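Sample intake — Cell division protein FtsL
Collected from: Pseudoxanthomonas putridarboris
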Amino acid sequence: MTRLLLAVLILANIASAIGVIYARHRHRVLFDEVTRLERARDELNVEFGRLQLEQATVAESNRIDQIARVRLGMKFPETADIVVIRP
């Protein structure tokens, strides 16, 4: 009887140790994944900031006006060229 109890306790101890080892390994794997995802998030935030700055620069009205005048040869119509159509 004593040997059986001792064997059960030893098996329970081994099973508990294996559970602790598995839990620690799983924790390390998940921690590595969280760290990798946080790094990717930070890189995406930096890229988003760059894109917002680029969008603000490209959408600036003075720049659009300059491109329209230089590249497309556009200009504001003269007062005499404006026609108002009423219903």
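Post-analysis note: The longest helix spans residues 2-58.
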